[in-house]
Amino acid sequence: MPALVPTSYSARVVWLGYQPVPVEKLVITSEPLQEMPLSFAGLAGEVHAGLTRPSCSRVLKQFPRGTEIRNVRQLCVVSVEEMAEVAKTLGLEAMDYAWVGASLVLEGIPDLTHLPPSSRLQGPDGVTLVVDMENLPCQEPAVTIEQVRPGQGKGFKAAAKDKRGVTAWVEREGVLRLGDEVRLHIPAQRAWRG
After folding, report:
1. Domain for residue 55, yes or no?
2. What is the number of structural domains in the chain?
3. What is the mean pLDDT of residues 120-138?
4. How far apart are CA 87 and CA 121, in angstroms?
5. 114 vs 20: CA distance, rounded Å
């Protein structure tokens, strides 16, 4: 049996985003793209690009802050469906994906935030992203939303709990384009019983 199993799930790429370097403190300024050429280091020039990164608060129990580690957070992947729920909770007519620092917005995969780690999202030309894990809600989108919609950003962290999407890294280079279909592949293993 193969270690990865193609599923019947696919999703359409509805938004691609780029966060240029440098980034203002606590404010997200993503720019929309028509296509995203991805190397093993991610999207060239983007704030999250690189083969390695300094460790952050997410891995303090494993490494001192600033330790150079493998970059498995090259991309932020969110779903249209989950972001619509977050927007509704915040009282927004719609979510601007730039506000949440999305790299890739997909439509069509249910419960995207809880995809199993090591799942793959594979594009038409073979470009393949590996899901690292759930992307926990952080303060930057809340601050960004609050700046453009005063009174509506403060509740972002609570509203986005279990709906913030996943982080991913590039396993196979290629190009993602608006309108592309990506297919979901999942690990062929039972859930961990710890």
Report:
1. no
2. 1
3. 94
4. 25
5. 28
